[in-house]
Design a protein that fits this description.
InterPro entries: HPT_dom_sf (IPR036641). This is HPt domain-containing protein. The protein is built from four helices and two strands, in the order ααααββ. It is mainly α. It is elongated.
């Protein structure tokens, strides 16, 4: 999950840089669905917001949001993986902020 979503976010950033808003919106649509399926409501909502904003908003703001989402997602998934590998029970405590406990 982590690799696919991070790649989609990176590819969306690249598509925006090249002026391909349609491709970027499609990638963010896939990312939003994946994040929501994994229960990451906050990240999924942010990805959906980015998807909806791509055609109309400031591209610099969208790039900033994409970078932030990628960082949050990477951190949350890494924390989950570490805890699972250590045999610990864990969950995403707050789906809005992606805090892992």
């Amino acid at each position: 999950m982590k690799e696919n979503n991070e790649k989609n976010i990176q590819d969306a950033q690249e598509a925006l840089t090249k002026g391909n808003q349609g491709i970027a919106a499609e990638l963010m649509h896939k990312t939003a669905g994946s994040l929501l399926n994994f229960g990451l409501k906050g990240a999924g909502a942010e990805a959906k917001f980015i998807e909806n904003s791509i055609q109309t908003d400031n591209l610099e703001e969208i790039q900033r949001r994409l970078e932030s989402l990628g960082e949050k997602l990477g951190k949350a998934v890494s924390q989950l993986a570490e805890k699972l590998e250590a045999g610990e029970h864990c969950q995403v405590e707050d789906p809005e902020s992606m805090v892992v406990r």
